[in-house]
Amino acid sequence: MSDVLGLADPLDDELVCSGKGCRAVATWGLLWNNPKIHTPQRRKVWLACDDHREHLETFLGARDFLRATVPVSDLEQRTAP
Ligand SMILES: [Zn+2]
Which domain of life is it from (predicted)? Predict the structure, then answer.
């Protein structure tokens, strides 16, 4: 899936945090789903550095969108063919 924030792009080795204005390397992947627009199995991914993980989790959690937080290394395994 190419909409997983460029994880499939071989030129983009570094996973950058999704925090606004943040250029830090992401260490966490937040898996989320908006039941109003996504099918239940669908997972969108936000990347987060250690500093922004909690902020992004709170943001998604408040909307009941957050499904799981996994280390980026797990994320790469999940999205591998
Ligand atoms: Zn960040």
Answer: Bacteria
Note residues around ion ligand 1 (Cβ under 5 angstroms).
Answer: 17, 19, 22, 24, 49, 52
- Domains of the chain by residue range: 1-81
- Quick one: pLDDT at residue 14? 76
Of residues 47, 42, 52, the one with CA closest to residue 73: 47
Q: Mean of the pLDDT values across residues 1-18?
A: 60
CA of 30 to the centre of ligand 1 (A): 13
Per residue in 36-76, pLDDT (tens digit) is 999 999 999 999 999 999 999 999 999 999 999 999 988 86
CA of 29 from ligand 1 middle (Å) equals 12
Residues facing residue 12 across a β-bridge:
none
47 CA to centre of ligand 1 in angstroms = 8
